[in-house]
């Protein structure tokens, strides 16, 4: 710390006056070093509840899975669309009896709109044309509270229909869960695949899809070792785990549950089963969910995460 010196003058004999010392300069203090903020302690209960609230918000949104009211597979050639019972693609009551005609040809689908029917796509009037097979805004058609778009599942093309006024969305009453438990937040060992590989993942349509899997997660419960094969599109995305366990018989959704976890770090992966959640098929007969591959069927009761919803 730098301190200014005080200058003094010697006392002279007899009448020589004493010179006043100049005022001292204030001490220059070294700024205190700022310490990094202490990370907030991890509160598993609060973090899990916050995560689940966000999950429920997505599920119950106007475009969430609870708004799903229809899934119609298209035949080759013309498919009539509307609420009329003779339509190949039957829309909910209250929509036009004859909305238009969907034509599938050579892997492409076009819609000819019936005169007088007002459709929009991405907020702009849509009078007909080719449909894109995606859920992005640019491909979604709207008619009042109804939204519909083309989906592709293997070789099949279909129309998925959502309604923001769907009874399932309006009557939703929450999802029961097991109590949050630190015992089900488990650190596992990640064994990377030595070569690029894919695993066979079936779905409710009876189709088996080959999906990329970066390796295997090995974890222990009560001294017993278990293994799960996640899927992952690329190394920066979370690991996606489709698993079944012995609670599926009575307490949790019968077809299994989903779980996401961060990519491995230093060869470790944290499996937080408190965030295990029901697939869309637990809420709607119109979803096309993947099912747990055989190696992900655990001989274990995972008493964590979401329980069964309603009578599903």
Structure in words:
β6 (119-121) and β7 form a beta hairpin. The protein folds into 2 domains: 65-170, Tumour Suppressor Smad4; 173-296, no CATH class. The strands form 5 sheets. A 6-stranded antiparallel β-sheet has the order 1-11-10-9-6-7, with no helix packed on it. A 5-stranded mixed β-sheet has the order 3-2-4-5-8, with no helix packed on it. Strands 16-15-12-19 form a 4-stranded antiparallel β-sheet, with no helix packed on it. The chain has helices at residues 44-59, 167-170, and strands at 68-73, 77-82, 89-90, 100-105, 108-113, 119-121, 124-126, 128-130, 141-143, 146-153, 156-163, 185-192, 198-202, 208-212, 215-221, 224-228, 239-243, 257-261, 268-272. The longest helix has 16 residues, at 44-59. By secondary structure, the protein is mainly beta. It starts with 43 loop residues before the first helix and ends in a 40-residue tail after the last strand. It has 2 helices and 19 strands.
Q: In percent terms, what proportion of residues is strand?
A: 25-35%
The Cα radius of gyration reads 32 Å
Distance, first to last CA: 73 Å
Q: Give the domain tally.
A: 2
Q: Which of globular, elongated, flat, extended, rod-shaped describes the shape?
A: elongated
Strand order across the largest sheet: 1-11-10-9-6-7
What is the N-to-C succession of helices and strands?
Answer: HEEEEEEEEEEEHEEEEEEEE
Spans where pLDDT lies below 50 across 5 or more residues:
1-23
Keywords for this entry:
2 domains, mainly beta, DUF1684 domain-containing protein, six-stranded antiparallel beta sheet, 19 strands, signal, five-stranded mixed beta sheet, DUF1684, Tumour Suppressor Smad4, disordered N terminus, 312 residues
């Amino acid at each position: 710390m730098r301190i200014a010196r005080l200058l003094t003058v010697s006392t002279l004999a007899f009448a020589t006056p004493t010179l006043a010392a100049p005022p001292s300069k204030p001490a220059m203090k070294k700024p205190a070093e700022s310490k990094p903020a202490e990370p907030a302690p991890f509160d598993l209960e609060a973090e899990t509840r916050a995560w689940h609230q966000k999950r429920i918000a997505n599920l119950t949104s106007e475009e969430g899975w609870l708004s799903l009211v229809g899934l119609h597979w298209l035949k080759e050639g013309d498919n009539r669309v509307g609420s009329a019972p003779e339509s190949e693609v039957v829309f909910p009551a209250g929509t036009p009896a004859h909305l238009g005609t969907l034509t599938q040809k050579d892997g492409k689908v076009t819609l000819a709109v019936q005169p007088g029917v007002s459709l929009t796509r991405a907020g702009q009037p849509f009078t007909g044309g080719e449909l894109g097979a995606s859920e992005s805004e640019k491909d979604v058609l709207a008619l009042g509270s109804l939204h519909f778009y083309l989906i592709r599942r293997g070789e099949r093309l279909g129309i998925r229909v959502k309604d923001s006024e769907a009874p399932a969305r309006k009557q939703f009453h929450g999802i029961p869960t097991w109590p949050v438990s630190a015992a089900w937040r488990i650190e596992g060992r990640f064994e990377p695949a030595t070569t690029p590989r894919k695993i066979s993942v079936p779905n409710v349509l009876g189709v088996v899809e080959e999906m990329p899997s970066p390796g295997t997660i090995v974890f222990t419960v009560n001294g017993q070792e278990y293994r799960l094969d996640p899927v992952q599109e690329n190394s920066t995305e979370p690991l996606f785990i489709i698993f079944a366990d012995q609670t599926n018989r009575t307490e949790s959704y019968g077809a299994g549950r989903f779980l996401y976890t961060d990519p491995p770090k230093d060869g470790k992966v944290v499996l937080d089963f408190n965030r295990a959640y029901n697939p869309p098929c637990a809420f709607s007969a119109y979803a096309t969910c993947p099912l747990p591959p055989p190696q992900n069927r655990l001989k274990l009761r995972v008493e964590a995460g979401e329980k069964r919803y309603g009578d599903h």
